[in-house]
Amino acid sequence: MKNEIQEIVTRLDQHSNKGEGGESMKWLFRPLLQMLAGGESVTVEDIATVTGKPVEEVKKVLQSLPSVELDEQARVVGYGLTLIPTPHHFTVDGKQLYAWCALDTLIFPTLINRSVQIESLCHGTGKSIRLTVEPDRVVSVEPSSAVVSIVTPDDMSMVRSAFCNEVHFFSSPSEARDWLNQHPEGKVLSIEDAFELGTLMGKSLEESGPSNGSCCDI
């Protein structure tokens, strides 16, 4: 399974580098998540200050992201982690946030370095699924049989529609059968394997070397 997980990471990484955000995600994504985790909208100036990038460069990157969510004042309210309700409830430090997809909920605790409570729904039955996830491990899963669906689309130019909208929780592998029949190229992973996948994906988003600096660490 470890080889399969690494293959998924490699495939997603290859296509994401050519897709939405491209290389800019390496300096933008994690700091933006950390700011959104505070439970408030994020200004362009906030992003520029934290990342050390010019305001105009930040504006240009945000304008290039078709999936980014902005409010009426052009502040960021969502990009993976969002203030706008979705089926994936993501509670951090008592603040109610949301995530675009099931895998996001497993990636983000590591990237924001926080313990998180997650509540979502089985895509097949609508039954509740609850998890507690820390930066380095999954603490609890109810039901324990829950799984996550994964796709590896060739075109990641619009990450939310291409990837996130097909990455769901299911209460068990059997509940995911219909989805697998409709998505023969897809896979279903246990929560532990999905967490490992998410951890590896998160690492691939980070720049190495001193230029990353403390701006990407809480």
Automatic annotation (TrEMBL):
It is an enzyme of class 4 (lyase). The keyword Lyase applies. The keyword Lyase applies. Keywords: Lyase, Mercuric resistance, Mercury. Residues 8-80 form the Alkylmercury lyase helix-turn-helix domain. GO terms for molecular function: alkylmercury lyase activity. One of its GO terms (biological process) is response to mercury ion. It catalyses: an alkylmercury + H(+) = an alkane + Hg(2+). Its EC number is 4.99.1.2. Cleaves the carbon-mercury bond of organomercurials such as phenylmercuric acetate. One product is Hg(2+), which is subsequently detoxified by the mercuric reductase. Belongs to the MerB family. This is Alkylmercury lyase.
